Amino acid sequence: MIDVASTAVRWRITWALFGAQALYSAAGIASFTVAAIVGYDLGGTAGHAGGPALMVYVGRSASAYPLGYMMDRMGRRPAVALSYMAGVVGAGLAVAATVTESYILFLVAALIFGAARGGADQSRFVAAEVHPEHQRARIIGLMVFSGTVGAVLGPLMVSVTGDLAKGAGFQELAGPWMAAAALSLISTLVIVGFVRPDPLQLVGRNGTSGAADSATDEEDETRTRTEIFGSAPVRLAMLSMVAGQIVMAMIMTIIPLHMDYLGQDIQVISYAMMAHTFGMFALSWMTGQLVDRFGQMVVIAGGAVMLITAGLLTMLAYELAVLMSAMFLLGLGWNFSFVAGSSLLVKGLAPRERGRTQGFSDALRSAAGAVGGLGSGFIFGLGGVELLGGLSLAISAGLALGVIWVAAIQRAPTAAGHQP
In angstroms, rounded to a whole number, what is the distance separating the alpha carbons of residues 13 and 310? Predict the structure, then answer.
């Protein structure tokens, strides 16, 4: 049994992780809103506009597994704190890049800033593991809901911080990156000060992983990565997160530039990003409850339908109302696929497997986002939003087919008389 004091500790850790991720989310959204525009200004072509997004995703992918390994060996707190410090460094270099008008430096800055996201993303697993198994889907949803702060604060910061930067003698687009550096530093201090004791120690001491997890840990202590990802549901969890990420990266990266081409000012562009991030984060509390009630596969299927619709609307995105609808559904479809996919993945992992395995899954997801971020500029240059939306629709349809395939496998009897 876990006493009241340890319950209070678990929730203090959860809210600290929530607060730090909320601040970093605001930093990330504010900076990402202008990243494609800065890339275009510094590089000079539409292809250059996708470069910063590519480097953000490369940073996320490259850092995810090492940070997961660090979580298993040294604890959760130092790994998460280190990732947020990377956000401070990356954002500071981005400011320097806008001042010196260096595209290469801006790419380096985006790479380092993306590494911070590698640790922030894994905070959802850290928060979930200190709670009983039956609460974890809701905790993951709660952690994703932290992005609501970013959805509201991030876009609003763009104009305000831009004006402040201009007043201080900097370029307007340096403002969001200045704010990103400050918020990342605050997130670091929150983790260092309030995520105590280390969640890995808490799991080991109090048994918060639950009886089922303890058995799984004993049974699967020596499982290989191939064995862990060998079941159809785990493969679906991976497909759900990867497909949602690549579709979101393709559309989200280029829509600000598309709107800029249409003559929309930066404030209107920030409102479109607000609609998107609202869909991504604001209803996450509901998504976790839907997972608990209807199961992961039903929620993943719903996410696939939303992503398909977002791709279709992107092909028609020349009116502001259509743009806003596409961006909102893109965010909500990602939310469903991400929360349900994360819950489906963590369900089959023992405590000693989580850091590295979840880091590997996030690395793969981030790599998919990198492909989407890089390709978005070139796809947009080749065929505009019509081609971009069509490819996104096709990928989302593949996710829907994956759900149908796994459902069919689970219904079919196996030789062992159990589901895979």
Answer: 36
